[in-house]
Amino acid sequence: MQKGYLCLMLHAHLPYVRHPEYTDSFEEDWLNEAITETYLPLLKVYENLLADGVDFHITMSLTPTLCEMLRDPLLVERYEKHLEKLFELSEKELVRTKDSTEFYPLAEMYNSFLKDALHRFKDVYHRDIVGAFARVQDSGKLEIITCGATHGFLPLMEMIPEAVKAQVEVGAENYRKHFGRRPRGIWLPECGYFPGVDKYLKDAGIRFTFLDSHPILFADPRPAFAVYAPVYTPNDVAIFARDPESSKQVWSSKEGYPGDYYYREFYRDVGFDLPMDYIAPYIHESGQRINTGIKYYRITGPGEHKEPYHYGAARDRAADHAGNFMHNREKQSEFLFDIMGRPPVIVAPYDAELFGHWWFEGPMWIEFLARKIHFDQDNVKMITPIGYLEKFPENQVVQPTMGSWGYKGYNEVWMNSTNDWIYRHLHWCARKMVDLANRFCNPDDLKRRALNQAARELLLAQSSDWAFIMKTGTHVEYAHKRTQEHVNRFTRLYYEITEDRVDEGFLSNLEALDNIFSEIDYSIYRG
User: Fold this and answer.
1) Does residue 140 sit in the same domain as residue 16?
2) Which of 378, 408, 438 is the last residue of a domain?
3) Distance of CA 203 to the CA centre of its chain
4) Which of 114, 344, 434, 471 has a beta carbon 3.0–4.6 Å from 228's, enabling a disulfide?
C-alpha cells in the first residue's frame, strides 16, 4: 500500500564566473569541474533510468547564472579544451601506472569515465547541456525549476521591493529563454524567505518553492502536518519544507553517507601528488597546482594515511546506502501515515554539486535509490512538488516566518562582520536603479543599452555567493573584487546615464565582459 512520497530536490548553482579577460581562470574551473563530475554524470543517471523504464521523479534547479554559462560559446569552447586535456592526462596515466596492480585499474576507470564524458558532451549533447536536461524534463520524469536571477539573498533586499521583484522576474524570464516556458517552481536563493516574498512569486507565475523546516514549524498558524505536507502561503504559493531526518543522513559530517571510509577521498588529487614536470600541462598556466579530478585514494579514516581507492567496493557501498535510505523512508512514511491519515511527502533537498564533485559516488547512489524504490518495494514513491499537489490539492494556509538554510537558520551567514560592508553599496545601487527605471521611460538606443547593462551589474553584485565566500574565508579576495567591480561599474554607468554622457567604448567593453541575460529589460525595476 502506498504510504508516502519522496521529493528529491537537487539545487544546481554556480556564480557567474566568466572571465574572457584571462586565458586561464581559476574560477572557471569551478564550472569545468561541476560539468565533468556532476552535470554529465547526473544526465547519464537520468538517461539510464529512462532507458530501463524506471519510474523516477526528481526535481532539480538550474539557476539562471548556471544556464547562461552552460550556453555561453566562450565557456563551452574552453570547457571542451579542458575536457580534452583531462582525457590526454588519463591516457598518460595508463602508461605511468601500467605496472601497478593498485592504480592501473583506477587509471582505466578514469580513462573510460573521461572518454565517455567527452563523447556525450560533443557527439550526443552537441555541447548543449541545458538542452540535454530539457529533453529529460520533456520525458516527464524531471521537473526543472528556476532561482533568483543571480542567487541574490532576498531577505536582505526586503526594504527595496523592486530589487526583490527583479531577482524573481528576471530568473523566471531567463528560464523561459532556455526552456521554452515559464517555470512552475523556484528555489529561493539560500532558501531565504521573508513574509511577503510570496507575492513576487505569485506575480511571476510560480506555484511552489522550498524552505528549511523552521520557517514552517514556526508558521502562523502552526501546520497540522509539520513539514510532511505542503502548505500554502497567503498568496497561494505552495511551500515544501525540508525534512531534517533524511537531510542528516546525507549531509551530516559525522553520520552522513559521503564520509564512509570506502568512498573516494576528495582531498588527494594527482594535481598535487605528481611531479611538476609531469603534471604542469594539466594545472593552471601559472604553475599553481589545482585539482584535476583524478584521485586514487579512499577516505580510509580520520588521519592523513590513505589507502588506495577500490571502485567496486565503493559502488557496493553506494548500493547499500541507497537501500538504507529507502528503508528509513519506508519506516518514516509508515509512522507518519498512521498519524496523518494521508501519505506524507518527505522533502530531501541537496546541493547538486555534492553528487559527483564532492561525493564521487553520489550519482550512482541516486541511480541505485531510484531503481530500488521502483523495483524493491511499494510503500514509497518518488514524486515532484507538482505531482504531489495534483494528488493533494487541498492544504493548510499559513504564514511562514523569515528563515534560510544557512547556519542558525537566519541571516547570519550573509550579514556578519566579514561581509556587512557590502550592503550599503548594494542598497545604494538598487535604489539608484529604481530611480533610473522611473526616470527614463523612452531612452534612445545607446542609453537603453546602458540602462540594461546597469541592471546586469546590479544583479551580479547582489549574488549571495560573494557574501558567503567572505564568511567562509575561501577565495575572499575574489569575492571582494567581484563585489567592488560590479558596484563600481554600476556607479559609473549611473552617472554617465544621468549626465547624458554615455561612453560607448566603456559600455561595449562591459557588454562583452558581463554579457549575462541578453533578454533583460531594465524597466523591471520601475516602481
Assistant:
1) yes
2) 408
3) 24
4) 344
Say whether both 162 and 251 belong to one domain.
Answer: yes
245 is catalytic: no
Does the bond joining 221 to the residue before it have cis omega, within 30 degrees of 0? yes
Cell of 499: 549626465
Task: Please say if 316 is a catalytic residue.
Answer: no
Predicted confidence at residue 328, as pLDDT, reads: 97
269 in a structural domain: no
Contact 31, 14 (CB under 8 A): yes
Rounded to whole angstroms, how far apart are CA atoms 382 and 380? 7
Q: What's the whole-number mean pLDDT along residues 247-269?
A: 90
Give me the mean pLDDT over the 457-469 stretch. 98
User: pTM for this structure?
Assistant: 0.97
What is the pLDDT, as a whole number, of residue 253? 65
* Gap between the Cα atoms of 297 and 318, Å rounded: 17
Q: Is 101 within the bounds of a domain?
A: no
- CATH label of the domain that carries residue 227: 3.20.110.10
The number of angstroms, rounded, from the C-alpha of 381 to the middle of its chain's C-alpha atoms is: 24
CATH code, 472:
1.20.1430.10
Is 97 part of any domain? no
Q: Which domain holds residue 163?
A: 4-71+128-264+309-408
Q: What are phi and psi of 391, to 5 degrees?
A: -80, -35
> How many folded domains does the chain comprise?
2
Per the domain annotation, does 363 fall within a domain? yes
Distance of CA 479 to the CA centre of its chain: 18
> How far out from the chain centre does Cα 349 lie?
11
**Choosing from 351, 435, 496, 511, which is the catalytic residue?**
351
Average pLDDT of span 442-446: 97
Given a contact cutoff of 8 angstroms between Cβ atoms, the answer to whether 301 and 261 are in contact is yes
pLDDT above 70 covers what percent of the chain?
Answer: 100
Counting beta carbons within 10 angstroms of the beta carbon of residue 242, is it exposed (0 to 12), middle (13 to 18) or buried (19 or more)?
A: buried
Q: Are 523 and 437 in contact (CB under 8 A)?
A: yes
Query: At which of 384, 408, 432 does a domain end?
Result: 408
Span 373-398, pLDDT tens digits: 999 999 999 999 999 999 999 999 99
Q: Rounded distance, CA 101 to CA 273, Å?
A: 19
